[in-house]
Amino acid sequence: MNVFSKVTAALSLSVISFASFATSPDFPHLATTGYGEVVAKPDMAQFSVKVVDSTMTAEQAKQSVDSSVTAFLKALSDEGVESDDIASSNLYITPQYHYPKKGKPELVGYRASRSITVTVDELADLNRYLDLALNSGINQVDNIQLKVKDQATYQQQARLEAIKDANSKAESLAKGFGKEINGVWRIDYNMSGSQPILMRSMAMDARTESNSYQDSSIVIRDRVDVIYKLD
Question: All domains of the chain, ordered by start, with CATH?
């Protein structure tokens, strides 16, 4: 897997055009962009599911959806999931119409839906919680996002790699043009963040074993833009 993006760097002895910097120095200088990334194993997750039902009346649709949501919330509580790790949306009900080629639209029923987002502290529990959703009548998975608990530590590691990358390229470029680095004039920091593993719009019957989640990876990236002074 290609873990680093292509590097762009410019060398100038007068004025340089570099989008990351609002102004350019009026002395010999060199600008580089450093990239760093760390590959981490996910140890937690967050997933969003939805229950959707269409019936002849709004009340029937509401009752059906609320029943599935209540059953799922109880199942999560029985598993020891804290209420702070669960977020549920309001109930949405919309009328459904049939549009004939001629004549007025005809009301044919109502569609109700509710969403639930669950934070999973232990990745090994993810598949079991998805099973609970299926058994409770939830019929749609909107999003599964794998995460790491210690995001800040991995981000710091990626940042240090970006700094090393910027310095290494600057030294190589300066040497190649017969110059020497004489300090740093400006640093612009733009945190790139992580690239989580996402699984969207999965059907509930498309079962995935939990081991496949644990075998996945998360790429956490960072970058830094630097202008160095040259002798």
Answer: 9-40+150-195+218-230 (3.30.110.170), 44-147 (3.30.70.2970)
